[in-house]
Write a structure and sequence with these properties.
The protein is an alpha+beta fold. It is built from six helices and five strands. Strands 1, 2, 3, 4 and 5 form a five-stranded mixed beta sheet that branches. A hairpin with a 6-residue loop joins strand 4 and strand 5.
Length: 186
């Protein structure tokens, strides 16, 4: 198991957690990442969490996996996270681009809370996938408060991977609804 990443519900109840600690657990933040600030707007029903990294931090190259690379520059990024108490939550961070000592590439690093080039955190991706298994995409979009095209992008990322793991080798017979075929419903 991950060193200290899995916490039982009873352990969680017995701990006194600050809002920063709770968010660090939810986002899987570890050194050098920390929560710089949390801004709450009651009027906008919005929570903005600002994440940063410790000055002087070094990161792994995302291309060749060479560790201990210096930061070339940073890019501001924002991800939509799960709502906290009906407040839309956004994660803001400066993402370092490293210049690799080995392969020479300059690339954005991968972060523990989101997949590359995604507009949602991994937890938000998870809830979207759970909802989409049981309801139409438009309903998921309405519940989450995002446009349905953003939901479709998440599904388009995960569904092909999931389908590629399916094993249909035991299928012997496939049924076809001839009534629909006769009506040219394809």
């Amino acid at each position: 198991m991950g060193q200290g990443l899995i916490i039982s519900f009873l352990e969680l109840l017995s701990m006194t957690l600050s809002q920063e600690d709770l968010l660090k657990l939810a986002l899987n933040l570890q050194d050098p990442w920390y929560i710089k600030s949390i801004d709450l707007s009651i009027a906008e029903k919005r929570l903005d969490v600002h994440i940063d990294f410790t000055a002087g931090s070094r990161f792994e190259c995302t291309l060749c996996k060479m560790p201990n690379n210096c930061i070339h520059d940073t890019k501001e990024r924002v991800w939509r996270h799960l709502n906290y108490f009906q407040f839309k939550t956004y994660i803001h961070a400066r993402l370092p681009r490293t210049k690799c000592q080995k392969c020479g590439s300059v690339r954005l690093i991968d972060v523990p809370w989101a997949r590359r080039s995604a507009g949602f955190t991994l937890l938000m991706d998870s809830i979207i996938l759970l909802f989409a298994q049981n309801m139409p995409v438009n309903a998921v979009a309405e519940i989450i408060g995002e446009h349905d095209t953003r939901i479709w992008r998440v599904l388009s990322h995960y569904i092909p991977e999931s389908r590629s793991k399916e094993d249909h080798s035991d299928v012997k017979v496939v049924g076809v609804d001839e009534t629909s075929c006769a009506k040219l419903q394809r």
